[in-house]
Give the backbone structure.
Amino acid sequence: MRALEGVRIADFTLHAAGPFCTHMLSLLGAECIKIESAMRPDIFRRPHPVYGRMGAAEFDQVASGKRSVTLNLKDPRGAELAKRLVAISDVAVESFRPGVMERLWLSYGELQRVKRDIVLVSISASGQTGPEKGYAGYAPLFGALGGLGHLTGYEDGPPVEIRHIMDHSTGLSAAVATLAALYSLRQTGRGQHVDVAAREVASSFVGDALLDCALNGRTPFRQGNDDPVMAPHGVYPCRGEDEWISIAVKTDEEWQALVEVVGNPGWLDDPRFADRAVRWGHRLALDEEISAWTCRHTRWEAAGQLQAVGVAAFPSYNARDIVEDEHLRTRGVICDLTGPQGQSRAVVGTPWRFSHTPARLDSWTPALGEHNHYVFGELLGIDEGEIRLLIEEQVIY
Amino acid sequence: MASQPPFTGLRVFEYGIDPSIAYAGKLFADLGATVVKIEPPEGDPQRRHGPFPSDEPDPERSGWFLYLNANKRSVALDTSIAGDRDLMLRALRDANVLFHASRDPELESWGIAPDQLARTLPHIVVASVTPFGWNSSFRGSAADDLTLQALGGESLGLGMPGRPPLKLPLDQSSYQAGLSAAIAACGALLGGGGGFIDVSAADVWATFYMGPEVANAHFGRRKRGRAGHHVLGQPYPHTVLPCKDGFFAVQCSTRRHWQAFLEMVGRPELAEDPLFANRVRTNDLHSEEADALFAPWFGERTKDEILRQFLRFKIPGAPVYSIQEAAEHPHLEGRRYFTEVDYAGGSVCMPTTPYQAPGFKPESLRPAPRLGEYNEALRREVGR
């Protein structure tokens, strides 16, 4: 049995951050009903330039395993049906801009009226309160506002794009909050409204930098791949096109082992590299020396030799490397999913192996409104004729 | 109606030295659980990791340790000694969750490997967090945040084209693995408790952040390059532009945003410029040329001035705030994101949780525990 078997989620989320939260709950076994509309389908249903240029790759990841219904929430009858769905759910999750749920007559108070102990989770850029609550935001902006963006980049360059880290991390943090609220509901019988702010998720990942600022008035800056104490600590070019190896040396023993592997090019006697602190001071010169060695090897030769002597070293993987890696496939990181027409493709699994309550992805991306009859008919008990009428009148739409 | 934090009454233990389980434990501690950190007699190495007040190292004053361990209790145990292991096992009888990060080669002979503990203590959730997985041929292999981000596929897409791949700053593998372990442990608790969960930090990066790329690779799509400061494949401008006092992030997805942007910068005629005939192409191939057109407008204004214009024209954009600017921001102050905690004879402003609910906040935040301060109390509790 899966951990959240029997838990039902009314999922009003769009795009990536919100759906990633409900994706977590769905992987753990919750029945997640995604409320969409043909009037304004989730833009991630279409191929998206970042999240899947040719297929809706991001949508496939976060919507697999969920059920899809279509509702026109702007029609009062649509909002009413949404409330009936909330009434048979344990949790509702939304990621609109603050105020939208109120305008749709789906505020926390309204939802409580139909389900006294509902847990409502609201996910937004800046939260439901505070002077900037209404600001629109997307992933690159969350990181910029929260401090993580400023720290990401080379020391001599601008802040760089941090890809979908912020969307997915916001979903992960929101999942912790949702599960905590669900736990509390089981203990106390009380629901609550949880307010998740994506810019604060970004800030939560720079806690030590925020404390450095609070304690010493310092404002840390971009450091590329540098570590505050380790050297070498970097990503070095290998033989081949855009092939790289990451190397991190923690201790002097590891340093000596690395020098052995490289073939003792006089580094042990070089005063610039005498111990960790001195090496750190000469890390740029050291990086050049190491690059001269890595350039002559493939990433696998270099990684294999360094790992064998206990040095943390690994090639910088691309997606194809990940798909083809035997270790990752054995761990279930990559698995195969079969679609309704028998088609099969590689998908990412979960980073967890549970002994008792397995987590898994077990169904293909739902078509828009695929589960209308199941949800409105079977779950809500609306008869077939009425459902047809609601479809004709573009309420279930 | 007074409400109590959601994890009130839960007992959580951390065993093994790794910031990932400290973050997982923190997520529980901040929501009301009693979290006991089992440290080696010499203390968690994070205690020796700065920042320290005035840069003076002091194992009881590490800012990094404080951030991860406020609200927790500390016991110092030498688990190579049978008596201390016995104490740990007795204490775990009353626990709900154990986060386990030790990879000591002796664990199995001591009977405290995570899968062994899950069997001997079937009522508790044992979540092991390791770089490559407990059940893995790489269990003992060396790893670092840098190499984990490389293996997980994260770094190859970060940074500038033509320059080395970058890692995300600070110790992001620990935050990511900790979050993932906390989700799994919450799930297992809701599923009735008990059981062994094997979490791998490398797997977290590969599963949670490479889904779209894995799908694209499967369909033979081209490899994604490093994005630099432009979000590849998006219509221009999706970029970070330098301004008078730093950088400003711009995102114009829709035609309306783009037209409003041109109007805002006083260049409406550029809508007809061939450079912008296909904005995705502009972004991927001619972004520097395009950036140069708008650089003067941004260069003459501060982040705050630009933000006000963006709000007026309803265009998504955000200042790239430095750590200090984020720390002092009135919005976060308005949301009481920071809270004072006793520290080093005074107090310090600490970030709280990125989520709020009336019942979520503990009434007060306790500072990080002194090493072993809970030893005597724990001995009393388990009847020794």
